[in-house]
Amino acid sequence: MSTLPFLDTAQALRDRMAASPAPCPCALQRCAGWDSLSDAEWPSDQLQAVASLRDPRIDEPTFAEHHPQGTRYESADAPVALKFFPYNRCEVFACQRCQQTVLRYTEFGGYYVDQRARRIGPASVLDDAQP
Q: How many beta carbons lie within 10 A of that of residue 27, not counting itself?
């Protein structure tokens, strides 16, 4: 169970974001879609966990995805729909250098664990789509 504050609406997530992040040379620049980012690449010295998108009242969040414009999971322009996978399993981080908002979740599959990250902005967050 996370001790981070739970953000349950799109507006609550938008309110946590900087209007225009500054340029930053870190490894997260490649994370426009859900990219794998090892613990060694994760810039933990500059990222602060600020919230969780995982609803503490739900034991097993849905794996359904939301792509109303035909995007895909890895698409850089895929919408951020809080109640859908993988957003419903994320923690929200803020970069202390550039103020960029970054989502992170752990993907578990068979024999591996994969940390995934995605940089997001306010325009990508959908208004509370429901599964």
A: 15
Helices (H) and strands (E) in the chain — how many of each? 1, 5
Nearest to 38 by CA among 27, 29, 49, 48: 27
* pLDDT, tens only, 58-85: 999 999 999 988 999 889 999 999 999 9
Q: Partners of 36 in the beta sheet?
A: 116
Q: How many CB atoms lie within 10 A of CB 121?
A: 15
Separation between Cα atoms, residue 113 and residue 38, nearest integer Å: 10
Enter the pTM of the model: 0.90
Q: What is the dihedral of CA 46, 48, 53, 55, to 10 degrees?
A: 150
Tell me the pairing of strands 101-109 and 91-95.
antiparallel
Q: Percent of the chain having pLDDT more than 90?
A: 55
Nearest to 91 by CA among 42, 25, 24, 23: 42
> How far apart, in whole angstroms, are the C-alpha atoms of residue 57 and residue 110?
26
